[in-house]
Write a structure and sequence with these properties.
With 824 residues, this protein is α/β, with parallel strands linked by helices. It has nine helices and 44 strands. Helices cover 16% and strands 30% of the residues. An eight-stranded parallel barrel has the order 34-35-38-40-41-42-43-44, surrounded by four helices. The longest helix has 25 residues.
């Protein structure tokens, strides 16, 4: 069956609003890049020639639909390309109807390939299948090891709700050799995906009754693929223990010939479908899954070629391409304009793979050179990035430094898919937050258009959004009382993005330079639905196990203690999530089961990564505590034995992590509630955000007095009753009137749109910190102080609670070393 082209992305291009005509571009040449010297990777001693192409096997797919197609619609099998973007380079095969609800198709597939596909209703607009929980199907998986027949069931479509009975599959994934549980293995069936927890356990919720193809896949290819049919019955749980065999590693040397117009010293990268090749396995801006800065870079050879050696698992299906950007922008193309996606089934011996990039260009349009001069105030550690908007903003791409605050990027492709389009500049890939002041979040970008002649667009960034000079003199405080073992720290903002990871080293150095000795990381699991309850790590939305481990290792390398403070990530907010719960006994049993798994996962992660503290609890948990109430005041229905369940969870945390376990309690000024089970915790992490004044311009002295009053009258009695050490975790936004604490501080977290009704006031935040530390100084029973909401990827003088790059950071820089006794 001949595939039909994927026009879905092109149709999105056609819906772009008419853009303003771009101004004439000048034709000055791009400045030369400074010479670099990068030694090529060491080659293994013995290499084999590249493997021969894989023979094809025939796959017959049969699918059952939830309802007949509408007149004029066609059902297509969409084989997706995660390296380019799931919706951007799909190959679509029309299927043949057997009757109104059953369709079939046979296609060839290279032997040992891992097929990624989903079903699409093709009519006036394509409609992609979704799950019974109304979540998009990213893709289904099938491992083509022999000719086979595949039976699938479509639960529902993205334009129709699901109705019908459901079942689930659960099990444990273990190493077939050692028996050890395997973490963060991707498990999928029926279009539903999840990752295993630290015990190797998984739960696939919301599957229609019938037989589904169950697949377990290691994100880095390190284990063999498990595949087997699993029968699901309505209302029941199908057990599925899975064992994966570890794959040996071989060295694969990629050597590539590049076109003559490849920009000298621009990084040539390898984009691929494995974790180590930049795949996040999640949905990023614009439907992409890869980030340029996370792709491995090749080293230039003296003869003009580029080379990279990787240790790859034998038998892994590697899909890859060469790129000057990411998997979509500036990736290699064929001369006919099509995207290139290469395949390598990793052989059992060390191998050299020699490739040739035909062209970086696509179509007849000439490359566009973007040159920009950044302000002199741009921090030396920052990278200037460029972001393109052909149909919606895609992921930013780091530009190439020319020195002296000048940056450049040459856009080769896919210009054949563009007419006019928008672009904007930002710092450290944080477009929408750290923007060029001319194109802040919510405003249209600069305009560019394709042309048959070469263009050199030269821009100047006059200033950066949320970067201004801010003078603040920290008033020396006589008699700072140092205390042994004092914990001085910062807590990272919870809204994780995979682009943060490359910028952690510089961020952690700034934390260290505050005089801090504690970093609080805030990993998450996503819970998109309360009913049916879905609660598991989601790639690209939640940091993966390996990403948290890397962050802990980087922090420990600069002598920071590390605490993990895990909480859920809600698609909207915690209040609306709780108001949607059924609240019956069965739901609460499942909720405690999932939360217990969540705690054990992070306890294991803390132990294995070298973290020194685990923090549980949080304000969001109030409905689940003994006698809990919903946000609207109604009883939550939490079981009467909730106290015992919480004691069991704390006991489980201790079995998996042997450091101190703290409990996070919210404090907004009202008396602190201390459930009985808190006596099982090692300390209290007090989430401090009470009003310190009713004035818009309070004095430091008045706020310090009010903070002292609250500490003595409200906090101290609770702490004394528990006889636990206390850490103050503080967050106030940088706005006028912040001391009133009458708006949730998370409201201003990046990349939130700016609310002009609140005035930026960096001094107000700094004064609050000064007042709180003055109050803390005379109360030795407070054992630590943490600044919450720290924004890791870039410094911003914005309205958020992050102190990075603000006067409040100077307050901490004064107090932290003195409280710790390491400065006079």
């Amino acid at each position: 069956m001949k595939p039909v082209p994927d026009w879905s992305s092109l149709r999105r291009w056609l819906t772009i609003l008419i853009l303003l005509a771009c101004s004439s571009a000048c034709t000055l040449s791009l400045l030369p890049w400074p010479a670099t010297s990068t030694a090529p990777d060491a080659a293994p001693t013995v290499f084999s020639p590249p493997p021969t192409p894989q023979p094809a096997v025939s796959l017959t797919l049969r699918v059952t639909l939830p309802a007949p197609l509408a007149p004029g619609e066609t059902l297509v099998l969409s084989v997706v390309d995660e390296v380019t973007g799931l919706a951007l380079n799909a190959t679509n095969y029309p299927m043949q109807a057997q009757d109104a609800l059953h369709y079939t198709l046979s296609i060839p597939c290279p032997l040992n390939s891992l097929l990624q596909y989903r079903y699409v209703r093709w009519g006036k607009l394509p409609v992609v299948e979704d799950t019974a929980a109304d979540l998009p199907v990213r893709y289904r998986l099938y491992h083509a090891v022999a000719p086979a027949e595949i039976e699938d069931i479509v639960a529902s479509w993205s334009d129709t709700p699901f109705s019908g009975p459901l079942g689930r599959i659960s099990g444990q994934v273990t190493d077939a050799v050692s028996g050890a549980p395997l973490t963060n293995i991707l498990v999928t069936a029926g279009g539903v995906q999840t990752l295993t927890d630290s015990q190797g356990n998984f739960l696939l919720e919301g599957l229609p009754p019938g037989t589904h193809n169950l697949v377990a896949y290691a994100l880095d290819g390190a284990y063999t693929i498990f595949q087997q049919g699993a029968t699901v019955a309505a209302g029941l749980r199908t057990p599925a223990p899975l064992r994966l065999t570890p794959r040996p590693l071989v060295n694969v040397m990629f050597v590539v010939n590049v076109p003559a117009n490849t920009v000298k010293n621009a990084p040539v990268r390898l984009a691929g479908n494995l974790l180590q090749l930049g795949n996040t396995f999640g949905d990023l801006n614009g439907g992409l899954s890869l980030l340029a800065k996370r792709l491995p870079a090749l080293s230039p050879l003296p003869d003009g070629r580029y080379m990279l050696t990787l240790a790859l698992p034998v038998g892994a299906d590697v899909r890859y391409k060469y790129t000057l950007g990411d998997g979509f922008w500036n990736a290699e193309h064929r001369f006919d304009g099509h995207f290139v996606l290469r395949q390598l089934i990793v052989p059992a011996t060390n191998t050299v793979v020699t490739d040739t990039v035909e062209t970086w260009q696509a179509g007849n349009s000439a490359p566009i050179i973007f040159e920009v001069t950044a302000p002199k105030t741009t921090p030396a550690t920052d990278t200037v990035s460029i972001q393109f908007n052909p149909y919606g903003w895609t992921e930013p791409i780091p530009m190439w430094s020319l020195g002296n605050n000048r940056w450049a990027y040459v856009l080769f492709s896919p210009l054949n898919m563009l007419g006019q389009f928008e672009y904007r500049y930002c710092r450290n890939e944080q477009c929408g937050a750290a923007d060029d002041i001319a194109t802040p979040n919510g405003r249209r970008g600069r305009i560019a258009a394709t042309s048959l002649t070469r263009q050199d667009l030269q821009d100047e960034i006059t200033a950066w959004q949320w970067m201004q000079s801010a003078s603040y003199t920290v008033t020396p405080f006589p008699g700072v009382q140092p205390r042994s073992g004092f914990l001085a720290g910062v807590e990272f903002q919870r809204a994780y993005h995979p682009s943060w990871q490359p910028y952690l080293p510089s961020s952690l150095l700034e934390v260290q330079n505050l005089g801090a000795n504690l970093l609080v990381l805030t990993p998450t699991w996503t819970t998109p639905r309360a009913s049916p309850l879905l609660f598991a790590p989601t790639p690209a939305s939640d940091p993966l196990w390996s990403e948290v481990g890397q962050a802990v290792g980087l922090a420990r390398a600069v002598n920071l203690n590390v605490a993990l403070f895990p909480e859920p990530r809600f698609l909207n907010d915690a209040a609306s999530w709780w108001l949607a719960i059924p609240g019956d006994e069965a739901w609460w049993n499942r909720w405690f089961e999932r939360y217990r798994a969540f705690v054990i996962y992070h306890a294991d992660l803390a132990r294995q990564s070298g973290a020194t503290m685990l923090i549980l609890g949080g304000e969001w948990l109030q409905p689940a505590l003994p006698g809990g109430a919903l946000p609207d005041g109604r009883p939550s229905g939490v079981p009467a034995d909730a106290d015992g369940r919480w004691r069991d969870i704390l006991s489980a945390a201790r079995q998996h992590f042997h450091g101190p376990v703290y409990w996070a309690l919210p404090f907004r000024g009202a008396p602190i509630q201390t459930p009985a089970f808190l006596r099982e915790a090692d300390g209290i992490y007090l989430l401090w955000y009470p009003p310190l004044s009713t004035s818009a311009t309070p004095t430091v002295e008045d706020m310090a007095a009010q903070a002292g009053h609250l500490l003595d009258e409200q906090v101290a009695p609770a702490v004394n009753s528990l006889n636990k050490p206390l850490i103050l975790a503080v967050a106030y936004p940088s706005i006028t009137g912040a001391a009133r604490a009458n708006v949730a501080w998370q409201t201003f977290n990046q990349p939130m749109a700016d609310d002009p009704s609140f005035a930026l006031n960096l001094t107000a935040q700094a004064d609050i910190y000064q007042a709180l530390l003055v109050a803390l100084n005379s109360r030795e029973w407070i054992k630590g102080f943490v600044s919450q909401g720290y924004y890791p990827p870039v410094a911003l003088q914005d309205k958020s609670a992050s102190v990075r790059g603000k006067p409040a950071a100077e307050v901490l820089r004064y107090w932290y070393p003195r409280l710790r006794g390491v400065a006079p």
